[in-house]
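From the shared-data thread, chain only:
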Amino acid sequence: MEKNDQLLMQLIYMFHTSAMQGLGKIADPNGQVIRNLEYVSQTIDLMNMLKVKTKGNTTDEIDELLEEMLSELGLNYADEKAKPENKVEKETKESDDK
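Structure, as tokens:
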């Protein structure tokens, strides 16, 4: 795999990890679970822009990876957006207590 392909994959993984943290699915580097759906929405938009701007210039492997991650993030975002705020606060508190 070319160096630029590896760097692009690394960038995509960084966006994905950051978005999962914003969804409250994984802890941030400080061990805190914080939800920020506005940030996640922006990250999904950035990843969609990358998909559009790199179309035809990346490998099938990168295209598939980006598509799978966008699908996963979109579904998780919709799920989190549908949750009432008090339920999210309760879940966050429960995970903090563990």
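The radius of gyration is 15 Å.
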